[in-house]
Amino acid sequence: MSLTALLRKKTPLVFQILFGLVVLYLLITATIYVFQRRLMYNPQGHVNTPHRDKTPDLEKILLKTNDGLELVSYYKEPRKTKEGEPYPTVLYLHGNTGPAPDAAHKLIPIVDAGYGVLLLEYRGYGGNPGKPSEKGLISDAEAALHFIHMKQGKDAKVFYYGMSLGTGVANGLAERRAPAGLIQECGFTSMTDAAKVHYPMFPVQYIVKDTFDSQRRIAHLNAPVLVLHGEKDRTVPVEQGKKMFETAGSADKTLKLYPEGGHTNLYDFGASDDVVKWLTAVRKR
After folding, report:
1. Residue 38, CB half-sphere, CA atoms under 13 Å: how many?
2. What is the H or E stretch that residue 167 is in?
3. E strand or H helix at 160, and its extent?
């Protein structure tokens, strides 16, 4: 007699049901563990906004990572001020869904204000080789920063601008290479905390591989910080944005909350003006 048949014969129905639920729970947990990076990174999706088709004039470039990948990304040289000094450059690190050009429209006001931009396309996204991971994406960001320094010199001022997943990448890069300033749009305290919001029944704190522990990292940051968050964000609760602001080690930090803002629409509520004003204020100090 098989074990299953023996259990059915000897075990009351209520225990059979409980046993089945436990097995199902363990199977789902194992599935989340095995396929977590497919859930975390969504290169084939798209960020659908009314502005997605608007793009600034960016040059397609090729970045070389320290582990041998070549990544297509997008770049715009900064203009020069009246005094002949170049404006800083903004390194933009996009979210987990879709290719980098989906976010290009957000760079139009930054470019129009004179700033340079580098719109990084991650490994595994937009036709680039490789598979996304925390270590890999931070390596991609380092390659982008190296490109800026090669083009503009090692003293070039670079602001890191992360959106959602990109905030984790930005904090990881800032831990290694200090920025001129850090912008966090709809950022999480850690990927583990973000996963708990969507999978509260599962022990994600024990199974998440790419933790992106931004709260720990930002606590050691001395550069100016701008935190943007929508109060109606259902992907990353606004409480996590507030906690990032509170934890930031910098004495120069600004928090902008948008009462009607969600996760991908802050620019519909004036975030572009807030970003440019903040960049200009920090640049002129």
Report:
1. 5
2. helix 165-176
3. strand 158-163
172 pLDDT above the threshold of 60: yes
**Distance of alpha carbon 103 from alpha carbon 112, whole angstroms:** 16
| Stated pTM of the model | 0.90
Contact indicator for 82, 155 with CB cutoff of 8 Å? no
Amino acid at 192: T
**Per the structure block, which two tokens stand in for 29?**
């947990």
Instruction: Note the pLDDT of residue 6.
Output: 53
Contact between 162 and 169 under an 8 Å Cβ cutoff? The reply is yes
* Residue whose entry in the numeric block shows the structure tokens 């991650």: 122
Burial class (CB in 10 A: 0-12, 13-18, 19+), 78: buried
- In terms of residues, how long is the chain? 285
**Sheet hosting strand 253-258, strand order edge to edge:** 59-64, 70-76, 116-120, 89-93, 158-163, 181-185, 225-230, 253-258
